[in-house]
Amino acid sequence: DVKVTQSSRYLVKRTGEKVFLECVQDMDHENMFWYRQDPGLGLRLIYFSYDVKMKEKGDIPEGYSVSREKKERFSLILESASTNQTSMYLCASSFSIRDLSYEQYFGPGTRLTVT
Amino acid sequence: EDQVTQSPEALRLQEGESSSLNCSYTVSGLRGLFWYRQDPGKGPEFLFTLYSAGEEKEKERLKATLTKKESFLHITAPKPEDSATYLCAVFQGAQKLVFGQGTRLTINP
Q: Residues B69-82: pLDDT tens digits?
């Protein structure tokens, strides 16, 4: 069974704080992704990584950065949290072989509230 | 621009009342269409991948089908535990998925 875990289910932070969200997958997947999900806006891709130390911007990267130092771990960083970053954050991973990617598996999500 | 549109936005059924959810897509060169189930406050759970028109996949009371322009998720004799939001997605580029807005399904006992 694929398992994607996220460091926290619920997090409350103050405006201006630096926030770290961590994601770990145990299936040796090449690709990892960070999404945010908001009512009426659906799932939106923030960043993704297709290899260690590699990253690519998604659709809404502003205000976020990422780090992938090890294959199994992908971190999302909010450099200075703002109230409009209150959201559900979802991590996912997927397998690739010869430039073909397969289904993404999601973690349980982190509900972040910035006050 | 690649797009995924799901309908209806919400569907309420009685237990045992079969129905279908629709996912229409516009993408150049489909490389995979995915169905997920999402319970409130949780991450999406992978259900099916469909790759080519005419393909069908089944799991318990769910059956997913694919044509050249749309996919259907058929639910047969649903139970209250099938209540969830169902999402579909297609590949955009090599690794990225573009998701539909989802159909919120409620099964009343």
A: 999 999 999 999 99
Asked if A45 and B96 come within 8 Å (Cβ–Cβ), the reply is yes
CA atoms within 13 A on the CB side of A83: 1
Show the tokens assigned to A99: 């430039």
Contacts of A109 in chain B (CB under 8 A): 41-43
CA distance B75 to B84: 12
Task: List, for residues A49-106, the tens digit of each pLDDT value.
Answer: 999 989 999 999 999 999 999 999 999 999 999 999 999 999 999 988 766 778 999 9
Strands B103-108, B56-59: pairing is unpaired
Tokens 């290899």 locate to: A51
Amino acid identity of B32? G
Q: Which residue of A has its CA nearest to B86?
A: A42
Q: Which of B46, B49, B102 sits opposite A42 (nearest CB)?
A: B102
Contact yes or no for B100 and A103 at CB 8 A: no
Interchain pair A111, B41: CB under 8 A:
yes
- Look at B94 and A107 and tell me if their CB atoms are within 8 Å: no
- Residue B69 carries which side chain, given as an amino acid letter? K
Contact between A66 and A47 under an 8 Å Cβ cutoff? The reply is yes
pLDDT at A8: 93
